[in-house]
């Protein structure tokens, strides 16, 4: 069981960092959501279950990153492009 | 081929800007700061060129107060090899001309084949630094790039740039100054391993006063104000009132 521990911590830290950048939400609330999600799965024992949870976490992280870059792109496009349908 | 990338520390794009009560500028204390989004794009362009085997080294340079180090560490985490920090005191505004002169000094020392910059910073929106730098260096320039192709012998580059109503493709001789527009690429997120590795990458700190460059401000800011607030709309009860308003208030009829 122990050899998944570094991977879990790595994912946890990356998620915390990404959560702090979600536009609109106060960062401490988003971070708390990450903590709750990890605490919910803290009882997991079997290797298989942990792997599934990890891959789900990776998926969520990708989604958050996509959300942040899209928000930034849109903000920049709104501010600096005159031609709206370009 | 070495590439120099300029990055600026600005107020984060998502923060709502507040003007100081005395109209001398905007509030910068306790406000989230991050890398200028267009500089992120420039950095990503440099890193992509390195990954394609065109460039060998990416050097990031930032001119700013002590805390700009954070931005340079981010740049290092995103794939830059070295960083140079030209430090000045807090609350000093450096004008595009001075920035270009400082960058020229760095260029003379580092001898890059290409300087990649964001098209403009989202705080002062000057959009001048790349242009001034290219004329100071007497290099060719390609501004608002949305695509960069470097030729195989690395002596020229084809840059597609966004102009009013279309795209324009320029062939420029290297070394050159290229400023990056929004649609050039999508900046990446640094992973944890890269962030940790960035702490060990070399970062050179120089003092702005010791660069031997005239950085005196030539522009005086008279007043900074917020944009006019939009006036809300109103409801009309019936057609007569609408007609009355159109005729007397809007003077359309």
From TrEMBL, chain A:
Residues 7-63 form the Complex 1 LYR protein domain. InterPro entries: Complex1_LYR_dom, Complex1_LYR_ETFRF1_LYRM5, ETFRF1. It holds the Pfam family Complex1_LYR. Signal peptide: none annotated. One of its GO terms (cellular component) is mitochondrion. It comes from the Eukaryota. GO terms for biological process: negative regulation of oxidative phosphorylation; respiratory electron transport chain. Belongs to the complex I LYR family. This is LYR-motif-containing protein. It comes from Acrasis kona. The lineage of its organism: Eukaryota, Discoba, Heterolobosea, Tetramitia, Eutetramitia.
UniProtKB/TrEMBL annotation, chain B:
Heterodimer of an alpha and a beta subunit. GO terms for molecular function: electron transfer activity. GO terms for cellular component: mitochondrial matrix. PANTHER family: ELECTRON TRANSFER FLAVOPROTEIN BETA-SUBUNIT, ELECTRON TRANSFER FLAVOPROTEIN SUBUNIT BETA. InterPro entries: ET-Flavoprotein_bsu_CS, ETF_a/b_N, ETF_b, ETF_beta_N, Rossmann-like_a/b/a_fold. It comes from Acrasis kona. This is Electron transfer flavoprotein subunit beta. Keywords: Electron transport, Mitochondrion, Transport.
